[in-house]
Design brief:
three-stranded antiparallel beta sheet, alpha+beta, 33% helix, single chain, elongated, 31% strand, 4 helices
Length: 172
Amino acid sequence: MPGFVRQARRQAFWRSAPVRAVLLVLVLLLSALLAGQWAVQQRSWIAARYPALKPHLVQACAALGCTVEPLRRIDAIVIDSATLVRRLGQFHSFDIVLRNTADLPLAAPALELSLTDVGDRVIARRVFLPSEWPEAVTELPPRATVPVSFRLSIASGDDLPMAGYRALVFYP
């Protein structure tokens, strides 16, 4: 069989209606799978951006073995103010104001309080998870400030006097 005949048959095969229909179905199926994979990967962002879709995402995640959690963007959470004040003896109050600069609700971060000495060396460190906050918070509302106040008992010996503190936010 001459080469030009084989080439014409090959081109005719790919241009036939049944082959084109199968290719179209395959493209649509693979596109749907790609969109589904993206939706599972970005489920927290989708749930924050479009709250009406959250029940559908939760249902899909139940079948896939995943969970829909609040969106995490630590770069959008700012500490507006933090103060550590001695009240009576070993009792202190640690007050911090967090601001969500994003347009979406974000997951509440963990807070780290580090006590330092005169050489700025850490002498004690404590992490407060959102579940340990005085009022348990799971999400920070969009463009809102959230004040958090802790009452602490800090026992510091005379050999390591406390001179300062640092406050950080992070996601564990």
